[in-house]
Amino acid sequence: MKEKKSPSPPSLPPDAQREILNRLSAETRISSQEIAAILKRHGVCGDMDALQDAYRKRLGQRLMSTIRDETGKREVLAASGGEYVIVDCCNDPQKLKTIRHRIQAQMNGLDVSAGKVRKRVRFLERFASWVRKETSDGAA
User: Fold this and answer.
1) Predicted local distance difference test score (pLDDT) of residue 67
2) Positive or negative torsion for Cα 51, 57, 58, 63
3) Residue 69 Cα distances to 42, 87, 95, angstroms
4) Disulfide engineering: 42 pairs with which of 12, 16, 72, 114, CB 3.0-4.6 Å?
C-alpha cells in the first residue's frame, strides 16, 4: 500500500508561520481573520492577476456545484485539469474513473477526520461523566 504524504505547508515567511503556529499552540485555536492579519503584518500578498483568476475560478466552481438533478445529486463534476463534465453525458471511462477516485479519496480523508473528532467527543463525554461522578461522590 502506498504511504500517503502530508501536504507540504505553503511557502510563508518563517516569522509569520512561527507567529501563527505559536498562537495556535498557545490558544489551541486561531481564526481565519487572525491568520490574515498576521500575514498582512508580515507583508504577504499575491499577484493581483493571479488573485483575480483564482476568484473567478472559485465563482465558476460554485456555479458548477449548483447544477443538480431533481433529486439534488450533482450533474456536473470536475474531471482533471480544470475540466467539468456532465456525468450522464460522459462516455470517457478514464475521466469517470478519475472523478470516482478523487471523490473516494476525499471521502477517505473526511472519514479519517470524522474518526478523530468522534474519538475526541467520546473522550470528553467520558471525562465529563467522570467529573460529574467525582463531584456527586464528594458532595455526599
Assistant:
1) 97
2) positive
3) 46, 11, 20
4) 16
3-state secondary structure (DSSP) of residue 76: strand
The percentage of the chain sitting over the pLDDT mark of 70, rounded to a whole number, equals 90
Nearest to 88 by CA among 60, 69, 104: 69
Beta strands in the chain (DSSP E): 76-78, 84-86
Strand-pairing partners, residue 76, are 86
Query: How many other C-beta atoms can be found within 10 angstroms of the C-beta atom of residue 77?
Result: 20
- Looking at this protein, which amino acid is placed at residue 64? M
The residue type at 40 = K
The set of cell numbers assigned to 27 is: 490558544
The DSSP letter of residue 28 is S
Cell of 138: 464528594
Specify the pTM. Answer: 0.68
Q: Looking up cell 501536504, which residue turns up?
A: 7
Cell of 2: 502506498
